């Protein structure tokens, strides 16, 4: 008996239960989101229990106890928050009062219920039936007639509810821009693999397309004054007919109210049209993005990678990607035409092999004459950048005086490729300055070569910096001191 009394004392009244639910509405809000996602009109007891346990973990013990009591199935039924409990399907399904769910939806824009084509046609059917009742002669159009008063109250209550639902949909759709930006940023920051990324992107794109086709387009057509239906009059047409019918029976106030509702509905058309256009552009943009990604991924996997593996072999005839791996202009009509890169195909060129063996011979001589270059710049000061550069310049001059040369049209590029990996303190601008200075004094390398500064320029990249310098041609001298 005492246990039953304690249990009865634990239950809360309707007002107190509703107050706790609104104060801690996160639990019911999450349940409503899952209910809308599954397209059902009930919330399972298990869903409430899971959301409640996660929510009450950080609450104080007394608050946790009060929230658990308020959301208990027995208390919800006793407080008439739940109108029915169905246990015939194996799980307890709680059917909440629609008014309670509507109050919670009002507190969260994301919970606003979207209108579908079926719901909109249901509203149109009701309005068309109302006009038929006004035209049938069954109503007296007298203010003191209870039947006419009840009919008018029901009519305007229905129109007002439709206007409220439409206003919530406008707010919901106008907030879609932020949701689309969030989805885009998440896809950019995603660390998924290529296949998973495309599947995930296609999944939420399908959801947006479904939202666009099932909710946005029907609402846009419903509010369009020019929309027509097979068996029903459109919204603005039927409201105008009802207004004219009321006006013909000297019900001026009711007719004006009906016309005011029609103008209010018309004001919603432009913002929803703007949202529809934005979502439509987003869908087309994302579809094109997926097509481009798939095309690029296909050519990368089937064309680029095989050609790249071929360049990594020991075959000297295959050091750059061949033409078969180049994306041709007809790959996409939206990409401007471009020139094909010239392949580095030397085959059995005597000039190539002569340059290659001359370079190998020069590097071998440098290894014997110069020795270890790792400590060339070890005496440079670390306190002053200008002093460091000067010391590096002098140190590099000593190296260049002993370097072995070969014939080339770009002396700077040849020495850069040879020296850039030899010591840690190397800088390309030091080499360019030293080569220019020493070429004027002809003190670079041996006296068997002639150095001529040309009017041609070249570019080189080193440590994420690009340098532009004048080319210096290195030519071998004959016995008479004339260039070959």
Give a summary of the structure in a few sentences:
This protein has helices spanning 2-10, 14-23, 26-38, 45-55, 61-70, 73-78, 98-106, 117-135, 146-174, 176-189, 194-223, 235-248, 252-267, 269-311, 350-370, 385-400, 411-419, 428-441; strands at residues 43-44, 82-86, 93-96, 449-462, 465-476.
Detail the topology: elements first, then pairings.
Elements: H1 2-10, H2 14-23, H3 26-38, E1 43-44, H4 45-55, H5 61-70, H6 73-78, E2 82-86, E3 93-96, H7 98-106, H8 117-135, H9 146-174, H10 176-189, H11 194-223, H12 235-248, H13 252-267, H14 269-311, H15 350-370, H16 385-400, H17 411-419, H18 428-441, E4 449-462, E5 465-476
Helix pairs in contact: 3-4, 8-12, 9-13, 11-14, 12-13, 16-18, 17-18
């Amino acid at each position: 008996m005492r246990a039953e009394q304690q249990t009865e004392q634990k239950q809360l009244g309707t007002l107190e239960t509703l107050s706790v639910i609104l104060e801690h509405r996160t639990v019911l809000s999450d349940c409503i989101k899952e209910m809308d996602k599954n397209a059902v009109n009930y919330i399972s007891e298990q869903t409430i229990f899971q959301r409640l346990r996660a929510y009450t973990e950080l609450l104080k013990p007394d608050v946790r106890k009060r929230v658990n009591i308020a959301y208990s199935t027995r208390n919800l039924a006793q407080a008439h928050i739940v109108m029915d409990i169905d246990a015939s399907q194996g799980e307890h399904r709680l059917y909440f009062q629609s008014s309670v769910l509507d109050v919670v939806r009002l507190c969260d824009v994301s919970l606003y219920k979207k209108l579908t084509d079926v719901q909109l046609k249901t509203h149109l059917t009701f309005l068309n039936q109302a006009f038929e009742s006004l035209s049938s002669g069954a109503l007296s159009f007298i203010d003191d007639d209870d039947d006419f008063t009840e009919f008018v109250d029901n009519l305007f209550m229905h129109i007002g509810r439709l206007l409220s639902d439409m206003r919530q949909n406008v707010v919901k759709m106008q907030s879609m821009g932020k949701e689309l930006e969030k989805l885009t940023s998440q896809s950019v920051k995603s660390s998924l693999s290529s296949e998973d990324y495309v599947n995930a992107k296609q999944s939420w794109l399908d959801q947006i397309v479904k939202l666009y086709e099932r909710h946005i387009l029907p609402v846009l057509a419903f509010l369009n004054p020019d929309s027509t239906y097979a068996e029903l009059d459109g919204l603005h047409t039927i409201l105008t007919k009802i207004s004219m019918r009321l006006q013909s029976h000297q019900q001026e106030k009711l007719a004006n109210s009906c016309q005011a509702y029609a103008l209010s509905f018309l004001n919603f058309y432009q913002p929803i049209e703007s949202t529809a256009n934005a979502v439509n552009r987003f869908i087309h943009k994302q579809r094109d993005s997926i097509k481009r990604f798939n095309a690029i991924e296909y050519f990368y996997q089937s064309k680029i990678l095989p050609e790249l593996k071929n360049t990594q072999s020991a075959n000297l005839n295959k050091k750059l990607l061949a033409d078969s791996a180049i994306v041709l202009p007809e790959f996409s009509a939206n990409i401007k035409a471009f020139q094909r890169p010239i392949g580095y195909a030397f085959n059995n060129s005597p000039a190539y092999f002569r340059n290659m063996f001359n370079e190998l011979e020069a590097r071998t001589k440098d290894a014997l004459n110069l020795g270890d270059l790792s400590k060339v710049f070890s005496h440079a000061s670390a306190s002053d950048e200008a002093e460091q550069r000067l010391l590096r310049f002098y140190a590099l001059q000593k190296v260049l005086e002993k370097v072995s040369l070969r014939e080339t049209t770009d002396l700077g590029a040849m020495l850069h490729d040879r020296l850039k990996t030899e010591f840690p303190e190397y800088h390309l601008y030091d080499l360019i300055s030293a080569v220019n200075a020493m070429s004027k004094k002809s003190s670079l390398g041996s006296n068997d070569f002639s150095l001529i500064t040309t009017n041609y320029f070249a570019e080189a990249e080193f440590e994420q910096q690009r340098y532009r310098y004048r080319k210096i041609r290195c030519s071998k001298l004959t016995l008479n001191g004339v260039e070959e």
